[in-house]
Amino acid sequence: MDINVPRVFDKDPIYVKDMTNFEALEETNVGIVNFGAALVASNSTLRAAISATADVRVKLPGVNGILVNDFFGRTITVTSGALTNVTLVGRDYLNQAITELVVLGSDTTVTSLKAFKFLDFVTSTVTTTVGLGRGAGLGLPFVAVATVREFVSTTPTGLKTVVGTAGVVTPAVVADPTNATGDTRGTYAPNTTMNGTNIISAEIIFNPDSVDGLYGRPHFAG
User: Fold this and answer.
1) End-to-end Cα spacing for the chain
2) Taking the model in full, what pTM does it have?
3) What three-state secondary structure class fits 23?
4) What is the pLDDT of residues 98-120, one digit of tens each?
5) Which has the closest alpha carbon to 75: 47, 41, 103, 108?
6) pLDDT(222) > 90
């Protein structure tokens, strides 16, 4: 059985975790995660130019901020014309708060470690223009350990084809989260091209014995 994000997201961005998808896991704690037709990873596609004054929180447009991804969230690319530290403030697919500090040192574009479903605010340590885009890492529903197989189809009900080489799971962070640590459920970088057409699924091994169970630890939200 596929693990799909609850459809309630189409109607209400305020979602509280429940047991909806636990029955989709086998006794071996393996489940097939449906990521949908993920959009291309690209810089500044969410917001091209946000004017940020040093140390002033900038609220992002929309009643509920920016919706980053329709499934389990996504990593964020942060672009700036100046060397700065940018703090991302948002929520994951369970509507839990996330904060991540992205350090733009010698690079002008850096990708977050955490998967955000919503972005609410950004803060820069210097006055500059900040761009936000979708990264290559897709959020996961539960604490992930490894990939077994990847599948692709071009229609929601079409035949799934096994991809020759599966994508890569960045394992979940199990230590105490901070604004500099990775995602507490892990992220998935598919081998299939994300282009808004390819419907990507992956067979993932999960860890129900992780700290705080399958959902993992709440993200740092300081």
Assistant:
1) 37
2) 0.89
3) helix
4) 999 999 987 789 999 999 999 99
5) 41
6) no
Distances (CA, A) of 90 to 30, 75, 80, 96, 218: 29, 12, 19, 8, 13
- For residue 51, which amino acid is it? S
In the Cβ-directed half-sphere of 120, how many Cα atoms lie within 13 Å? 14
Collapsed DSSP state (helix, strand, coil) of residue 50 = strand
CA distance 94 to 65: 15
CA 150 to chain centre: 18
